């Protein structure tokens, strides 16, 4: 895992994790990729590979199947054979029986599954509770970072939350306390008034 998630979640082989945002999905698979794992991404044609690479995803060890269509389950099962972590965006609601088949494959192959969407009986569920962007002034500027509050819950976990940069102004995923808060444009004008 990336350091920002250290006290929040640990990916375990044989388990499935559900996320509600592409940024969370990118951050989870990026940590495994940095550790040397092959990553497969299934059913996400709009996935932001450039942003994921900034988080730490090694594109040279990434397999992408953007549109598997009705064969998404067999494609995912096949990729579990070769990748340590698979990111899946199911095209439709997933039945318990479908999830159970893939769960047994994950256990057999020592792989983990990150699902961008809902997943029956997942090990943990991560969701963004609140989000705020930094970098814009009054009508000008550009977005440079995003602060989010991430909630984690699971079958044996009552739930925890933490605040992280997703990403910070350097386009990295880090804890809020690791990065000095950027000075907003309106703060610059106040400082100039005091100095003048």
What's the short story on this structure?
The protein has about 200 residues and is α/β, with parallel strands linked by helices. It has helices at about 20-35, 50-55, 70-80, 95-110, 185-195; strands at about 15-20, 40, 60-65, 85-90, 110-115, 125-135, 140-155, 155-165, 175. Mean pLDDT is about 85; it is low at about 185-195.
Quaternary organization: single chain
Poorly predicted spans: 183-196
Write the CATH homologous superfamily of the largest domain: P-loop containing nucleotide triphosphate hydrolases
- Main beta sheet: 9 strands, mixed
SS summary, helix count: 5
Mass-distribution shape: globular
Rounded average pLDDT: 86
> What's the CATH class of the largest domain, please?
Alpha Beta
N to C succession of SSEs = EHEHEHEHEEEEEH
Residue share in β-strands: 25-35%
Q: Whole-number radius of gyration?
A: 19 Å
* CATH topology type of the largest domain: Rossmann fold
First-to-last CA distance: 48 Å
Helix residue percentage: 25-40%
How many strand units?
A: 9
Salient structural properties:
196 residues, alpha/beta, Rossmann fold, 2 domains, nine-stranded mixed beta sheet, 30% strand, globular, disordered C terminus, Protein RecA
